[in-house]
Amino acid sequence: SKMLTLEMFGYYMLAFNVATVLISLVGPVYSALFPRLSQLVAGGREADISNLYHKGCQLVSIIILPISITLVFFAEELLSLWIGDPVVVRNTHMLLSLLIIGTLINAFLILPLTLMLSSSWTRLVFLQNAISVVLLIPLMLWMVNLYGAVGAAIVWIILNTGYILILIPIMHRRVLKSEMWKWYSIDFSFPMIVMFMVGYISYMTMPLELSKLLGLSWVAVTYLIGLLLLGLILPYTREKIMRFRESASKKIARMW
User: Fold this and answer.
1) Whether this model's pTM surpasses 0.85
2) CB atoms within 10 A of CB 190
3) Do 237 and 62 form a contact (C-beta atoms < 8 A)?
4) Going by C-beta distance under 8 Å and a sequence separation of 6 or more, which residues neighbour residue 216?
5) Are 40 and 48 in contact (CB under 8 A)?
6) Would the pLDDT of 119 be above 90?
């Protein structure tokens, strides 16, 4: 706050508060799975732990990815609809997009964190936070001095990317040793790439000078397309959709 003007710090805090609301969307997943994972870990049921862990990770993907990527690409349009002040929108939308990317990555760490806590492995979490503080402060000062508020948002991305690249391999050396690449590929990278492609294509093909109503409709359709695609490609949600389709087909057949 001392390195930025009060006005720019206000823009940053507005964007940060909006971005971190996304974490609350995955809080219920943590609350629901933590007791069950603890029970499975205590029983040594590794196959069941793996199954529930990946289901939880894929559930986080479908909850957080469509809304996050839609906000990343259409932050300016949505802020214009919400706030309406062109000055605030101009100074906030880039910050919001960057902070959402960092928050999105952070959300994917919820289930690995849940698994570590279920395994009573709190030391790694403590060391992670202690090292982060030591590195974060000088990095934040340096980046803010170079790039202002945008630099601070980039640090948030760097921090969470570091967690993904360092914390996950360390965790999987001890817990679910053979599941690391499944997490990286199916639970994290593949849905992330698919949703980024949906957002990018939608953003690049969006017509100029749309009315507010049509613009909001375009953004909503982008979200729904991403949600549907992820639902079809993620194994857990695809299985649920197939079961629902079979059940609905049987009910319709009985009616006729």
Assistant:
1) yes
2) 15
3) yes
4) 77, 81
5) yes
6) no
